[in-house]
Specification:
This is Aldehyde oxidase. This protein is of the alpha+beta class. Helix content is 24%, strand content 24%. Helix 5 (214-225) crosses helix 6, helix 7 packs across helix 8 and helix 14 crosses helix 15.
Length: 744
């Protein structure tokens, strides 16, 4: 049998559970004696509650309690108790803490009843009076108030300028200077946020939460409610989309746990689609980019400045402009980033946070600069290719972006492009070809994994990481199967439970590298334990043999020097007299490695080529072809990897043409709070998408050579669409999304 699985297009091992409905999500766990909570949301954006009349609601048969700031227990006092793993600087929001209203749709009460329908009805008739004060939600009016953030969230560093941009600007013979903007966007995963808390008695809880990090949810619950970890088990086996929305625990988790502890009953709290617009989002961002080039088309100066929104109570930061100091070769780079406080909830990381916003401005400006310099957009990028990370002054562990340019352009047929805007047609339709690209961090974090082989020869590998639809179950099963030389059917990967070994949040495109390499480490330790057991048995061939002298294949452990000398793995376990042999990797070395200064700049790259067809009378835009060439190290599973990039491209097309959360500033509320009015691409919007995985071997980034795909595939897509529209129409739009009214 063949047990080489890494790099093979393997179907999802969790697919059958999902298509048959046996995969359970947070709101699908049916526990006995359960109550239902329904959140009441504030109709105003700023002010305070002056009166809550809960008596008529409490009089309804079946209503158990109405929680509000008037009766909610205050479990924790200090801000640090409310700060999760990635909380930004500031004072985190505390649901039902006091009468103050800080943003529209803020939770102001929780009605708990015997049925969901009764809780929803009771919430609709709960009478609350407010005193409203003026709110501020328009970013453009607060640019002058913007400030440089402090330490911000974990991992954020202020952008570093270099050289002298003023000098570089003067040296340039061609110049481009422009303003760019995009509006707030909400993640809108298919699964709404929900938490089911199972009351086990004596303040012991099983908490089924929609999250991208079970341990992060557990951390917050234990700190706020003073529970030990063994009393607050968090379970999240399946997550119906996240895109960053589940990186921080949302307020329904705290409300559900609070109600369960107070009523000593199991409680479920589910948010509505409208309430999904009441928390984190990609922040509205205003950007200014200025580029200058010499006569030969080389960049002499880059200036990239951004202002983004944050809440009144936290300083949310993201890396918007830093990529501009890294992607292209330029000695004189000025970078700036500021925040403006508005009466909205704190923004939150959203797929390719910062980079998705920054790449739009940079890559459109690069297209404009190519025209100003009289160069093809691809040739212009090639002339300014950077072989060294100038921002960090480090060599790249590997960089195959040049291959992305060549292979993507060849697949697309870029050589047939004519330069002049409006010069290409398909019948009456205007045809435009545009390109863009991007760069994203290749990160590996410490992750714990346990590997256990039972007496039947079945391998169970477990880690508390999450699965948000990216293929984690599958690729970890592949890695484990190949590591131990077992058929994939003999391997089970278990995740999403705080009783399992601890792993980081699933985000940042680091899960495959972090958990995947740890799976190999745990399997190696398991192999050592099996070898040790073998050496106790009557097997002379394995006496004095070290782990590097054996290999695992076809369900056996055998000598590399003589494959006929082999032991069947299940026989080794059975001979031990134990039901299983298991091992767990150590994260100590990984943690120590993070304390050392990096030797290399480690990133994934991509190049995107887009074709649009535009009706010259109606100015409707159709994206008819996309080629996305990606260099992301070793591709573990081309099938799931392709799906990752396809999703990224679709997301980028939505960002370019339709996706925005529309704020009515009179009310300080996002008005299109539904999937009917928050526009995302559907089947009719998507045509041919080709994904090209450029061969890239990297033995420095991590042992498996993995770089991650979740974010990088999105970068440059929106800009490439905008650039293609300009090529088709001659109209340059710098405000996303590009709707028909901006082209007419």
């Amino acid at each position: 049998m063949n047990t080489d699985y890494i790099g093979k297009p393997t179907s999802r091992v969790d697919g059958p559970a999902k298509v048959t409905g046996t995969a359970k999500y947070a709101a699908e766990y049916n526990v006995p004696n359960m109550l239902y909570g329904y959140v009441v949301s504030s109709p105003i954006a700023k002010g305070k509650i002056t009166k809550i009349d809960a008596a008529p609601v409490l009089a309804l048969a079946g209503v158990q309690q109405v929680f509000s700031h008037e009766n909610v227990p205050h479990f924790a006092i200090f801000d640090r108790s409310y700060q999760d793993e990635i909380a930004p600087g500031g004072s985190p929001f505390r649901p039902l803490y006091d009468a103050e209203i800080k943003f529209s749709l803020q939770p102001v009460a929780l009605v708990v009843a015997d049925t969901f329908e009764l809780a929803r009805y009771a919430a609709s008739v709960l009478h609350i009076e407010y005193e409203e004060v003026a709110h501020e939600t328009k970013l453009s009016q607060h640019i002058d108030d913007a400030y440089e953030p402090g330490k911000g969230k974990i991992g954020f560093q202020p952008p570093k300028s270099r050289g002298n941009f003023g000098k570089g600007w003067k040296e340039g013979v061609a110049h481009v200077e422009a303003q760019f903007s995009h509006h707030a966007q909400h993640h809108n995963p298919m699964e709404n946020f929900a938490t089911t808390v199972e009351w086990l008695g004596d303040k012991h809880l099983n908490i089924y939460d929609k999250t991208q990090g079970a341990f992060n949810s557990q951390l917050l619950v234990t700190k706020i409610f003073g529970l030990s970890k063994d009393r607050a088990r968090v379970i999240s086996k399946y997550t119906g989309g996240g895109f960053g929305s589940g990186l921080r625990p949302q307020y329904q988790l705290l409300l559900a746990v609070m109600a369960s502890l107070e009523l000593e009953r199991s409680v479920r709290v589910s948010l509505t689609r409208e309430q999904m617009f009441s928390f984190g989002h990609r922040p509205e961002t205003l950007q200014h980019v200025a580029l200058a080039t010499a006569a030969d088309g080389s960049l002499t100066g880059i200036n990239h400045f951004a202002v983004a929104e944050t809440s009144q109570f936290e300083d949310f930061t993201e890396n918007v402009v830093g990529w501009s100091g890294m992607l292209y070769d330029c000695k004189n780079v000025a970078l700036g980033y500021r925040l403006a406080k508005l009466d909205v909830y704190t923004p939150l990381d959203m797929r390719a946070p910062g980079a998705a916003s920054g790449s739009i401005a940079l890559e459109i400006a690069m297209d404009e600069m190519a025209y100003a310099a009289g160069l093809d957009p691809l040739e212009f990028r090639m002339r300014n290719y950077s072989d060294h990370d100038q921002a960090q002054d480090l060599p790249y562990s590997s960089k195959a972006l040049r291959k992305c340019y060549h292979e993507g352009a060849a697949k697309f047929g870029w050589k047939q492009r004519t330069a002049a805007p409006g010069s290409m047609r398909d019948g009456n339709l205007l045809v435009g070809w545009g390109m863009g690209g991007g760069v994203w961090d290749a990160t590996k974090l410490p992750a714990s994994v346990r590997a256990s082989l039972d007496a039947d020869g079945h391998l169970t590998v477990s880690s508390g990481t999450n699965e948000i639809g990216t293929g984690t179950y599958t690729i970890m099963t592949q890695i484990a199967a190949e590591s131990m030389g077992l058929p994939i059917e003999a391997v089970t990967f278990v995740l999403g439970d705080t009783e399992l070994p601890e792993s980081p949040l699933q985000g940042g495109s680091w899960t495959a590298a972090s958990v995947g390499n740890s799976v190999v480490e745990a399997c190696t330790k398991l192999g050592e334990a099996l070898l040790k057991q073998t050496q106790k048995m009557d097997s002379p061939a394995f006496k004095g043999v070290k782990i590097d002298d054996v290999q695992f294949a076809n369900g056996q452990m055998r000598l590399r020097s003589d494959s006929t000398q082999a032991m069947v793995l299940r026989d080794v376990v059975q001979a031990s007299g134990e039901p299983r042999i298991e091992a767990e990797n150590s994260t100590l070395l990984a943690k120590l490695a993070m304390l050392k200064p990096p030797k290399y700049s480690m990133h994934a790259h991509n190049a995107v080529f887009v074709e649009v067809k535009v009706d010259p009378d109606l100015m409707t835009v159709h994206v008819t072809r996309v080629v996305n060439a990606v260099a992301a190290g070793r591709i573990l599973n081309p099938k799931t990897a392709r799906s990752q990039v396809l999703g990224s491209v679709v997301w980028g097309l939505g960002m370019a043409l339709m996706e925005e959360s529309v704020m009515d500033h009179r009310f300080g509320r996002y008005m299109n709070h539904s999937l009917a009015e928050y526009h995302v691409p559907v089947n009719a919007d998507i045509h041919a998408i080709d994904v090209v995985f450029v061969n890239e071997e990297d033995d420095k980034v991590n042992p498996l050579g993995i770089k991650g795909l979740g974010e990088v595939g999105m970068l440059g897509v929106a800009a490439a669409v905008a650039n293609a529209i300009y090529h088709a129409t001659g109209k340059r739009v710098r405000d996303m999304p590009i709707t028909i009214d901006k082209l007419l």
